[in-house]
Amino acid sequence: MIGPIDHSKTKKPASRTPLYLAAADSLAEQIADQPVGTRLPSEDELAGQLGVSRLTARAALAELERRYLGLLVSEVPPGAVPTRHRFIARARLMAALSTATVVVEAGARSGSMKVAERAQELGRIVGAVPGPVTSATSAGPHRLLRDKDCAVITDAADLYRALETRDVERGSSASLLMPERTVSSAREVRQL
After folding, report:
1. Among 6, 110, 160, 173, which has the highest number of CB atoms less than 10 A from its own CB?
2. Where does the HTH gntR-type domain start and stop, copy by copy (predicted)?
3. What span, in angstroms and rounded, lies between the C-alpha atoms of 77 and 63?
């Protein structure tokens, strides 16, 4: 749970530090203490927990995005209403910016499948993690494995091999980013 702002930790006196910056600093510290994958509360809840207005909470989140996210790429302006065609544009961007796309779980007609299709159209590496045949979320990966030129990914070593194979086929310098030797097991991946 996110707590109120601790003004004693702000770098400047509380009266001189903009409240959104103090909120951003407090929020950054609290996020760092959370386990990976922990979701933030809604904007309203966050504002209440930090003891600030919703506008201040939004400005604090924007500050954290500016500090930590780096590059943000979008074909639409912030605040644009989500529509079907925008999700397709998002899939195109995600595929274009990725070296590889690995579908872990996806329905047969999900957004993840759109990203995988776009990645294949762009000649990117596409992999899929097989799952239980009884699970609806395995339908997408199974369709990719059955119908498309797709790598079977069961561990990190499989992904490394797919990347190495593609680099050798294309004579790409991207292999410079990969380990100097072929990885044969997940244990070796963890050791790298």
Report:
1. 160
2. 23-82
3. 17
What was the pLDDT predicted at 143?
95
Tell me, what's the pLDDT at 9? 55
- Name all domains of the chain by residue range, CATH numbers in brackets: 7-68 (1.10.10), 73-154 (3.40.50.450), 155-192 (no CATH)
Q: How many residues does the chain have?
A: 192
And the tokens for 145? Answer: 């494995």
Q: Please state, in angstroms and rounded to a whole number, the distance separating the CA atoms of residues 120 and 118.
A: 5
pLDDT averages per 10-residue partition of the chain, 192 residues:
60 70 90 80 89 93 84 77 83 88 93 93 94 94 93 92 74 45 41 39
